[in-house]
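Handout, section B. The chain below has 517 residues.
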Amino acid sequence: MSATLRELVGAGFGIDLLVSPEEDVELSWAHASDLEDPTPFTEAGQLLLTTGRQFAEDWGPAQYEAFVARLARARVAAVGFGTEVFRAGTPAELVTACEGVGLPLVEVSYGTPFIAIGRWVADRQQAAARARLEWALSAQAAISSAAIGAGGLADAVERAARLLRAKVSILDRDLVPIVRPRGGTGTLPQPVAQQARRVLRGRRRASLQLEDDGTVLVMHTLGRGERLRGVLVAERDTIFDEAERSALTTLIALAEVSLVHMEDVRESVQALLAELFVLLRDGRMDIVRSAIAGLPAGLPERRFHVVAFDAGDTDDALQSSLAQQAADPAHRTFHVQHGDRILFLVDVRRWAAVRSQIEAGRTRAGFSEEVGWAALDAGVLQAVRSLEAAPPGTVRTFRDVLRTSVSGLLAASSVREVAQARLAPVVERTDGRRLLADAAIWLARNAQWDPAAREIGVHRHTLKARMQELGGLLDMDLQRFPARAELWTMLDALGVVAGVQTSRDRDGVETSDRNVR
């Protein structure tokens, strides 16, 4: 502990307390001066020692009051008057002036040199600094030790909170709590949250200490300026000293390393989930369920809804909350980024809660109808089309879209763009246009082989071989209705259907080829 006035009085120096402070005061230093105005050479918290040589014979109460007022404005901690050097005893006017402003005053006997008082204060300060340094090293070691244990970052935060006697939280860049304080929510007060968001959007490292209504709050961003990963917040009712801030710095460094690792893991998991999503679309459920067992991810059981968000236009906090839920297998939600869309497959038993959460978030989203695994592609298509029809800040269901216009849905420019990209491997082949035209005729004949083969002018086995080849090129099982429906939608969006319907002979098919862009 640093030097205090009451400890100095009791240290055996022959010092008497004439004007007592309401509470004990800390002494940062002891400075001797007999200037009429010593304040240019003092600092806040110092003990000013004087022999009173500056007090002229004609000084009255006004001069003493002015002298003491200057010291009080300079935030001098206390005054020590050395007696028997220039005058016997402490001037009564000085005592009265100090009492008037509440400035502590001590009387120093003639036998006590000022330098001894200065050395005592310095020794106490040095001992206090050494003790705080030892505490800081011990705290840093304890926090680091907790971080490498089984509890990881959460244990490190809890250890730091106990040592600092503070609430400590770590939030990601969307201000969603990663580690919450024990007994707290980890949610920032609204004004602080707004400031944190501004700092994070500014893409620069920042460390802030705020005081509001008796609460001291330290906030420090985590990560490099160009890629901030979150923020650490420590809250209590007193200022953090240098040793305590050094302990926080250790926790900040550990948190940054942990967040980098967590983000790397999350990115790796997302890449793996994207691969598993391909297998899901192929109907290989057993492989996916086996692979996902060891991952922080969930999967619906049999029936689910697909939710689509635009990756560049989604409320960050909502998306992070849903992603955290999806990382818990118990939520039975699959989360994947699919192109420029973010998809969530939500089990029907969780659907009501998730839907309410999304609608309350006032973000743009698209919902599919309830589907099963055999209709996964159809569910994805429904969710994406619903998203495209949703105005900013609203959600749309596929049923809403169907009520508007089915033909408008199929003719949307986004559908044509998807179809062009999806059918590109076929169109680029020399016989690709013929394959697509044959597929349009076959589907228009309700996928019946003989009527379609007669119209095209080939044997039905030849037509079967062509459709099998087309399915292989597109990675689609054209024996399944959802795949046929998807192919028909793409052919219609590119104008192939309209082309084959205007002509039923081979010349008509050649004409329809020109409709494929």
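Note. The longest strand covers residues 215-224. Compare this with the example in section A.
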